[in-house]
Specification:
By secondary structure, the protein is mainly beta. The chain has strands at about 5, 10, 20-25, 30-40, 45-50, 55-60, 65-70, 75-80, 90-100, 105, 110-115.
């Protein structure tokens, strides 16, 4: 069982920055990949960024160059640094872990990000 707890969301003006954090309840050793997803009102959940156990990262085209995913294995933490935020980044952001053999999915409860002036 893996528990994920997100934090760091809030209201920010366009062009601003936020850093989301995801606390992972277990060692990162058996986690194959960590990801951040988001879901805007009336839209499907979409993948924002992924970081694999070896450190490789992937990003959605819409956030490339603005968002950075990182992990601190010693602290069992995953982060999403979001810069140059746009109103279209407004969504609930969810942390995801793919754990163990079969990469079972675990989800956090989400944190809300609102980009508005």
């Amino acid at each position: 069982q893996v528990q994920l707890v997100e934090s760091g969301g809030g209201l920010v003006q366009p062009g601003g920055s936020l850093r989301l954090s995801c606390a992972v309840s277990t060692s990162m050793f058996n986690i194959n990949a960590m990801g951040w997803y988001r879901q805007a009102p009336g839209k499907q959940r979409e993948l924002v960024a992924t970081i694999y156990s070896g450190g490789r990262t992937n990003y959605a085209d819409s956030v490339k160059g603005r968002f950075t995913i990182s992990r601190d294995n010693a602290k069992n933490m995953v982060y999403l640094q979001m810069n140059s935020l746009k109103p279209e980044d407004t969504a609930d952001y969810y942390c995801n872990a793919k754990y163990g053999v079969g990469s079972r999915d675990y989800w956090g409860q989400g944190t809300q990000v609102t980009v508005s002036s």
